[in-house]
């Protein structure tokens, strides 16, 4: 049975019509019909397609892992590693995966090597100049080439996210939602009450976006645990766990 057929059967077993499922998942009914027909071309790419499949599975109380496995078998155009799939959704790597050497580790190794070389040069220089009256700096080294112990390189600090400029999208002024990504990046989809898309894409780590509309804003967040929301000037609790796909709506009175 294809993934589209599995979804259609799960929907019917749950007693939902296409329109009812569309209202609960914030996925357009036309896109849902295409998904049940095994057509994922209008989902916005593989990442969004997987997000739709997980969202549908959650609403229908179906096995999301089985849905995703079937999607990969049927729709994957190329073989992708588990690591690439997990990174797309900000999920931790599985313990069995081969870990690549982090650039932080490489930088640390380089700094330690330079420190050891510098100390060795100082020791050798002190040994070679024993009982010699030094009247001027030797020509073999310069201050910039021979670091002293008090100025030895230190370990690099952990890089922090540099917030990008705030970006605003508006179709009115009645309701305002600020969404930021202080902990992890996330893909987001935002539309207003009449279905106009204000934004569809990735919210980078440290970035903030502001959305305003007349009566209602609908959000779908691909990594709910990594973002913070402020609605009409009031900060709201975290809307979900890391890696969770969550849909929320806010109005003028929220």
Automatic annotation (TrEMBL):
Task: Cite the HTH cro/C1-type domain residue spans from the record.
Answer: 7-36
A GO molecular function term, named singly, is: DNA binding
Q: Specify where the region named Disordered lies, as residue ranges.
A: 139-173
Which residue spans traverse the membrane? 101-124
Q: Which residues form a coiled coil?
A: none
Q: Which PROSITE patterns match?
A: HTH_CROC1 (PS50943)
Ranges of compositional bias, category Low complexity: 139-168
List keywords of the entry alphabetically: Membrane, Transmembrane, Transmembrane helix
PANTHER family of this UniProt entry?
CYTOSKELETON PROTEIN RODZ, PTHR34475
Name of the protein in question: Unannotated protein
> What is the species listed in this Swiss-Prot or TrEMBL entry?
freshwater metagenome
Lineage, highest ranks first: unclassified sequences, metagenomes, ecological metagenomes
